[in-house]
Write a structure and sequence with these properties.
440 residues, mainly alpha
Length: 440
C-alpha cells in the first residue's frame, strides 16, 4: 500500500484528476436520480407531509451506522476497498428501487411507499459509508495548504455533473407527461422511474476512476478499551466539539422546512419538476462559477469567515418562499439564488473537518460529524413534516401557516452563525493579521 509521502507530484495530480472524473460521473447519476425526482415519484403514490419527511430524513437516521465506518475500514484494511465496495453496492439498490415501488406492484400503496423509503435509505447508507472512506482517502491526496483549491475544483465538477443529470431527468419527465401520460395516465410514474434507473448506472460507472487512484496507507484502529477511547475522541476534542455544535444546529433547522418547501412548491405554486430542476440548475451554475475561487479563498483566509458569510446568505432563502404566491410563484427563484452561497459551506466544511481531525486517523472524526449532523437533520425533517400534517386541515394549508414555518426557518438558520463565531480554526489568520498583511 502506497504512503502519501511516496507519491510524486505527477502521481498526485493524476490522482486528483481521477477524483474529478469520479465526482463528475457520480454527480451525473445523482442528478438523474435526485431527491426531488424521488419526492415527485412519491407524490404519485399519494405521499403527504410525514411521508415526504421520511424520504428526506430516514437516510440520515440510518446514516448513524456510518459511525462504524472506521471499524469497517480497519476490518477491510483499506479505505479504497471500503469506498469502492460501498459505491458498487449502492448502485444496484437504486437500480431496483423504482421497479419495486411502482404502483400496483405491491398490494397496497403504503407497502410501495415503505419499499421506496427502505431502499432509498439503504442506498444512502452505502453511499455514506463510501463517502467517509473517500473523504479520508482524498484528504491525504491533497496537501493541507492547497486542499481548499482541490475541493473547490472538485465541487465544480460535481456541480457540472448534477446540472446535466437534473436537466436531463426534468426534460424527460416533462416530455413523458406531455406526450405519453395524456394517453395512459396510470404510467405517469414511469417518467420519474426511468431517469432514476439510468442514474444508478452512471453511479456504478463512477467507481472506475477510483480503481486507478493509489490506495494510501492509514493508521490501524485500536481495539478493546483503546478502541472506545478512539471512538469517543471527537466528542472530547473541544475544538471539534464546537464544529459538532454548529453541525447539529445547522442540520436540525435546515431539515425543519424541507417537507414544507417541497409541498409548497408542488401543491401551492404548482411548479413542474422540470421547472424546479431548471431553477436548481441556475443555482448550481452559479456555484460552479465561484467554487474554485472559494477554494482559493479558503486557503488564503481560512474556513470560518467563508462559512459565516455563506450561512448568513443561505439563511435568507425561506424569506423568498414567504413572498412567493400562486399569483407570483417566481419569487422562489430568489431562494435558489441566495443558496448559491451553499458552495462556501460545501467547500469549507469538509476542509475544516479535515483540518480539525488527527492527520494519522481522520475517518472517525469525519464519521462522527456526518452521523451526528445526519441525526439532527433527520429529527428536524421528521418534526417539520409532522408539524405540516398537524397544521393541515381538511382543506389546503392556510398560506399564513406556511409563513410561520418559513419565518422560523430564516430566524433559526441565522442564529447558527453564533456557533461559527465560536469555532476555533487552527492556523487561520484573524482579521487584524489579514488587514496588516494587506497594508504591507
Amino acid at each position: 500500500m502506497t504512503s502519501r509521502k511516496d507519491l510524486t507530484t505527477d502521481q498526485r495530480r493524476h490522482a486528483m484528476r481521477l477524483a474529478y472524473a469520479n465526482g463528475t460521473l457520480w454527480a451525473l447519476g445523482n442528478g438523474l436520480a435526485s431527491t426531488t425526482l424521488v419526492i415527485y415519484l412519491a407524490l404519485e403514490l399519494g405521499a403527504k407531509g410525514l411521508a415526504i419527511s421520511l424520504i428526506l430524513a430516514t437516510p440520515s437516521l440510518v446514516g448513524l451506522l456510518r459511525l462504524g465506518a472506521t471499524a469497517l475500514i480497519d476490518w477491510c484494511g483499506s479505505r479504497k476497498k471500503v469506498c469502492i465496495a460501498s459505491y458498487l453496492a449502492a448502485g444496484p439498490v437504486l437500480l431496483i428501487m423504482p421497479a419495486l415501488a411502482a404502483p400496483d406492484v405491491m398490494p397496497t400503496s403504503r407497502l410501495s411507499m415503505g419499499i421506496l423509503v427502505t431502499l432509498w435509505s439503504l442506498f444512502h447508507l452505502l453511499e455514506y459509508l463510501g463517502t467517509i472512506a473517500l473523504w479520508s482517502w482524498l484528504g491525504d491526496l491533497a496537501p493541507a495548504r492547497t486542499r481548499g483549491a482541490f475541493l473547490g475544483r472538485r465541487e465544480r465538477w460535481l456541480l457540472a455533473g448534477r446540472i446535466i443529470g437534473m436537466l436531463s431527468s426534468g426534460l424527460f419527465a416533462y416530455y413523458w407527461k406531455e406526450h405519453h401520460v395524456p394517453h395512459i395516465p396510470s404510467e405517469h410514474w414511469i417518467g420519474y422511474a426511468i431517469p432514476a434507473t439510468i442514474g444508478a448506472l452512471w453511479m456504478m460507472a463512477a467507481v472506475w476512476p477510483l480503481t486507478k487512484i493509489p490506495a494510501l496507507g492509514h493508521r490501524t484502529a485500536q481495539r478493546g478499551d483503546a478502541a472506545w477511547k478512539t471512538f469517543l475522541q471527537p466528542f472530547g476534542d473541544h475544538r471539534f466539539r464546537r464544529l459538532l455544535y454548529f453541525g447539529c444546529w445547522f442540520s436540525l433547522f435546515n431539515g425543519m422546512t424541507q417537507a414544507t418547501q417541497y409541498l409548497y412548491v408542488a401543491h401551492v405554486l404548482g411548479l413542474h419538476v422540470l421547472t424546479l430542476h431548471s431553477i436548481q440548475t441556475g443555482m448550481r451554475l452559479g456555484q460552479g462559477a465561484v467554487s474554485p475561487s472559494i477554494g482559493r479563498l479558503v486557503d488564503r483566509i481560512g474556513n470560518r469567515p467563508v462559512m459565516i458569510v455563506s450561512q448568513l446568505l443561505v439563511a435568507t432563502g425561506p424569506l423568498f418562499f414567504l413572498i412567493a404566491s400562486p399569483a407570483q410563484p417566481w419569487w422562489v427563484v430568489g431562494a435558489w439564488t441566495v443558496w448559491i452561497a451553499y458552495v462556501g459551506l460545501n467547500v469549507a466544511l469538509p476542509n475544516v473537518m479535515l483540518k480539525l481531525s488527527p492527520t494519522e486517523d481522520n475517518s472517525n472524526y469525519l464519521a462522527t460529524y456526518f452521523a451526528v449532523g445526519g441525526l439532527s437533520y433527520a429529527l428536524g425533517t421528521i418534526g417539520g413534516g409532522k408539524l405540516y400534517d398537524m397544521m393541515t386541515g381538511p382543506d389546503a394549508m392556510p398560506i399564513g401557516t406556511y409563513d410561520e414555518i418559513f419565518l422560523a426557518g430564516w430566524a433559526t438558520r441565522t442564529i447558527g452563525v453564533v456557533f461559527l463565531l465560536l469555532l476555533i480554526e487552527p492556523g487561520a489568520r484573524n482579521l487584524r493579521q489579514l488587514l496588516a498583511r494587506r497594508r504591507s
